[in-house]
Write a structure and sequence with these properties.
24% helix; 107 residues; 21% strand; 4-stranded antiparallel β-sheet; 2 helices
Length: 107
């Protein structure tokens, strides 16, 4: 079973003490660039909160520190599911609908 998508939330920025608010269950996540709405990442995962926490959102310098200028202004939303299989099925349906829309098949 699939639940509904959460509202868009600002992706936490390093060093600001911000937290990710996401389910610790299977589901989907979508991350986009706030300014343009362009897709950054989208995936069906076993643990949404963990996947978002591990997501690479910026670049690192040679010395291991994040380059603040390269840090993107991102936002994310989540959708919990009962199982990872449900999450994968929902993701495949969404991808199929997007491909149909982009090819001009949707009216």
């Amino acid at each position: 079973m699939i639940s509904t998508w959460s509202e868009w939330k600002r992706y936490p920025r390093p060093g600001r003490g911000e937290n990710i608010e996401a389910p610790i269950s299977p589901g989907l996540y979508e991350v986009r660039y706030a300014g343009t709405g362009a897709l950054h990442s989208f995936e069906a995962v076993e643990n949404v909160a963990r996947a978002l926490a591990l997501l690479q959102t910026g670049t690192k310098s040679w010395f291991g520190r994040r380059d603040a200028r390269a840090e993107a202004d991102l936002e994310y939303r989540t959708c919990a599911t009962s199982t990872k299989a449900d999450a994968k099925a929902a993701a495949e349906r969404m991808i199929g609908r997007r491909e149909t829309y982009m090819s001009g098949g949707a009216v």
